[in-house]
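User: Is it possible to get a 3D structure for a protein together with its bound compound? The compound here is LLP. I've pasted both below.
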Amino acid sequence: MKTIFPIEKFRELETPFYYYDLDLLSATLKEINRCVSGHPFVVHYAIKANSNPRLLSEIREAGLGIDCVSKGELKVAMDCGFSPRSIVFAGVAKTDSEILAGIDAGIRCFNVESREELHIIDQLAASRGKIADVAIRVNPNIDAHTHKYITTGLNENKFGVDMEMLDSVISDALSLPNVNLIGLHFHIGSQITTMDAYQILCSRINDLQEHVAQLGAKIEIINVGGGLGIDYDNPDNSIPPFEEYFNTFSQLLSLRPGQEVHFELGRSVVGQCGSLISRVIFVKEGVKKRFVMLDAGMTELIRPALYQAHHVIQNLTPQSGDTAVYDVVGPICESSDCFGEDELLPVSHRGDFFALRSAGAYGEAMASQYNCRRLPSSYFSE
Ligand code: LLP
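Assistant: Yes, that's possible. Here is the predicted structure of the complex:
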């Protein structure tokens, strides 16, 4: 599906801004629902990827739940009408006030990342006269072969309970009076583009299920996290391989009677539907380089600066078919404020519109006000 950019409408708007293709979002959500139908699968959208209310209402209408990691995200989800029973609460270091917000709201489940957190949830639930449902996040020590800042399932990472400590954390969960152990949670990383790490995860989970049953735990939910990647090089070939992804789990996970599998997809849901739209401020001639200087920078899209990520860069208003090579940079006072080096582009001019593609996930959500800039606005295809 190809995103069509309404350039005439863009001319009336102040750049930079995010533009979301809602038809593409809707087609993506339909494909997810098609692939999970007939399976005991529940998808919670990882709201950290993008909490734009307009996108959230599409996601809610499609029937997905929410995976949140802060009190702020919980509030945004509830304000947008997600039912508390469709919300799970993850996060490696939840504050007391965040845990209480989850308990008071009556969320479906806390994903617990340490023994310390388990005990605090038990105490706080007791203080409210409630029993909190929990899933223990297991660190399965699997290398997801992704950028080191977004791999999370290795035992040198801060996330989850290491396999060696799992038995004793499970036995605490079974004995504490105000927590109810209902699930096991895993998340091995983000932007994962091949299925091998998920195949290993499935076999790790199958082994673990045997073991955990022997400990006397009755597990209702296997939560396999998120992480399905998108094709950043082909923004117009844009629906991620959901069928292959969900099939991997339906074929390889050995579920016990009544068990559900939960997924926490973020990037693959919203990544391709968003583009960051910007105007060229200057085309600057250097000694060895020629720069396209945009009015968008790392403040609107930090992924290139933070993870050396590359987003396809398009000149939406070329004046001719001629091309030239440019470094495409932003206006921020940091050398890392660069979207692409040696990019072959149409010959570009001051005032041209540029799109940074595949920016729907972790773009607007990670925008900052560094240099006292305003946060970007958002516009939609309808
Ligand atoms: N579940 C957990 C426990 C997570 O930590 C994450 C993402 C997700 C689900 C959703 O993962 P996804 O399906 O979006 O890959 N800012 C980085 C990505 C950070 C991901 C953090 N955790 C980036 O822009 O690449």
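The chain has a mean pLDDT of 95. The first helix runs from residue 7 to 10.
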